[in-house]
Design goal:
Largest interface: A-B, 23 and 40 residues
Shape of chain B: globular
Oligomer: heterodimer
Structural class of chain A: mainly alpha
CATH superfamily of the largest domain in chain B: RNA polymerase sigma factor, region 2, helix turn helix motif
CATH architecture of the largest domain in chain B: Orthogonal Bundle
Largest sheet of chain A: none
Chain lengths: 110, 168
């Protein structure tokens, strides 16, 4: 240790003479038990109610036009299946499938 | 500290004994860091409270004092970032030796202040300080070097008083 170190140590030793206040009584912090706010409960109840009503709501029926169109498509499908030419049968089948898809999409929109 | 296990279990008497046992050292270190008695009291309380909350995670890889000083240093830095509290009544008149020691440390930045205090007052080695502060040994040596330079200048200007004290 250098002379400077000794001098610093000597000067700082004065800290040991600082009066020490009484030790406080320290209790570790414990989180308060949180209660669920009523607004949160109300929101959860509303969500449950909405989910339940959606679950039990009857599915919307098809319109008469859509039912007729679907029957027509089914009839066409049966006739196409009877076609002898394989290439034509597959071509018509694809067209019909597209038509059926369009019908489903238009039902979804309405 | 024999009470450590009991403190961990949450025994209130052991906890009080633990706080009472560490209070003087932690308070003195806090005073060295803050320079004001009331701030030091707040810092020492915060440190011991944080220590009690974290004592379950203390694995004994370092000494308890080193661990507590590391908490104190972090608390001190976060205390400095907070807006200053309203002015408090002036502290009671200090002993000249305490005043000298605090005046000597007052110009050091926090990192050098804690390094110098741990080294010169607590007698910790460079390695122990590095561990407590989470820095490398060369960083501690550099901080001590810088602190020595500042303290040397201050001691030079205070030389007559310091010399008189040394002669006693």
């Amino acid at each position: 240790m250098s002379d400077l170190d000794d001098r610093i140590r000597g000067a700082l030793s004065g800290l040991a003479q600082a009066p020490i206040p009484k030790a406080p009584s320290i209790r570790p912090w414990t989180p308060e038990r949180r209660t669920t706010p009523p607004a949160l409960l109300a929101a959860a109840a509303m969500l449950l109610l909405l989910a339940g009503s959606l679950f039990f709501m009857p599915a919307r029926g098809r319109s008469p036009e859509a039912t007729a169109l679907a029957a027509h498509i089914n009839a066409l499908e049966a006739r196409i299946a009877r076609l002898e030419d394989g290439e034509l049968r597959s071509l018509m089948g694809r067209e019909l499938a597209l038509l059926r898809r369009e019908l489903e999409l238009s039902e979804g929109k309405n | 500290m024999d009470d450590l296990e009991a403190v961990r279990r949450g025994d209130p008497e052991a906890r009080d004994r633990w706080v009472a046992a560490w209070w003087p050292r932690v308070y003195r270190m806090a005073l060295a860091m803050c320079g004001r008695e009331q701030d030091a009291e707040d810092l020492a309380q915060e440190t011991l409270m944080a220590g009690l909350e974290a004592i379950g995670r203390f694995r004994g890889e370092s000494s308890e004092s080193t661990w507590l000083y590391a908490i104190l240093y972090r608390k001190h830095l976060s205390q400095r970032r907070r807006p200053s509290p309203p002015l408090r009544p002036a502290p009671l008149r200090r002993e000249p030796e305490v005043e000298d020691a605090l005046a000597l440390l007052s110009d050091l930045p926090p990192a050098q202040k804690i390094t110098a205090t741990l080294f010169y007052v607590e007698g910790l080695s460079v390695r122990e300080i590095a561990r407590a502060l989470g820095v490398l040994n060369p960083t501690v040596k550099w901080r001590l070097f810088r602190a020595r330079q500042i303290l040397k200048r201050k001691l030079g200007s205070d030389a007559p008083r310091i010399m008189c004290k040394e002669l006693l």
